[in-house]
Amino acid sequence: MKYDVLILGCGPAGYYFAKNYAKCKKKVAIIEKARLGGVGFRTGCLPVKKYLDKIRDVNISKKLIKNEICEVKLAMKKLYTSVRDDLFEIEEMIQKNLRALKVDIYFGNGEFLSQNEFRINDIILKFDKCVLATGTSPRGFGDITIDEDIILSHIGAVNMEDLPEDICIIGANVEGIEFASLFSSLGVKVTVIDMDKEILKGNDEDLKELTVNYLRENNVDFILGNKVKNIELKDNRARISFGDRNIYASKALVTGIRRPNIPKGLKEIGVRIEADCIPVNDFFKTNVENIYAIGDINGILGMAHIGINQGIELSEYFINNTKPKKNYKALPRAIYTIYEIAGAGYQENELKNEEYKVEKIHFKDTFRGFSKGLHEGFLKILTDRNNKIIGLWISSENASDLVGDVGIWIDRGFKIDDIKSKLFIHPTLGEAILDAVLKF
Q: pTM, whole model, 2 decimals?
């Protein structure tokens, strides 16, 4: 079988490359060794968000119960298992979409035979170009081995048969804090250990406040400034060693440590592989002429939306010969806790030695915030000395939905006056941007 392009990996990068490139009627195949959707859609990013969305619905119900508007019994364990079972629909949706685009799908492990041949399940596929979108996998550290039973990665965490009584999360990073929000909201006793003395290091304190307070109210214990030395099994529990102490937990979740997924035979055909990535040039090309790499595997930032962008950019290069922009200057990003942190551009902690202005608006002081009964959350805008917008950040529920095209505003040097003349639908939470702008 001969293909114009063979894609290895069906996570965000590989899927969006296939989705865009297949429209030009070329012959395309995609190979997946595990589950369609990869970490971004199936075992990490999106599944955690689906759980958290359900928890927000439950929190609304709790408020109604508190106000005696309704009576309902909340079954948190059933919530967890029902969402876990729903995740299989993601794979079905991806497969349906690819089939509709006439993309051939192969499952299993394979290997490169040459720079134009790949063997999968005793079938030899020939190709003109190959796109590596194999991503990364979680790994332990030191002598710690992830077994996905007691010592977990995100894969085991979203696929447990039942909720544990307690869990110890290694890492107060984005992944660790998102899972802390998830499990503590489901009634699991959570302990978070991190070698740093700061939760969500690198983010402004005011942006973190709602999230940290929510976690503490849910009885999350933080052990900061302590490096975990070892995790071992003891009487079917995890014993976590740090400093001169040991603590025990039903489960231990290791976060933030990953390794690249290198296809078999890749090194043998001459592709250069570094310790934590496959390096690429400005066109996502490896050192081998017809082999390209997109998404986490190339080591550029390691976020799902970066992988999606690279998939689209590379497909456009193949179709129209347009050079990929790789424009990450005003990268939008989000932390998906119950109270999300989302935005683009600079935060204040990055501007300590720079002249800047900042204005903040609380959603409770907006018309839509009033109609929704919001009591918490805010938006802030940062500008430079010339009134150019250099950062916009939000802390609130569903903050990620409000960021929109702010990254484009920053990239294009929009000023405060440009936003004053922009139309915002009334009443919406997006009007908070206009309200903040009018304070300058």
A: 0.89
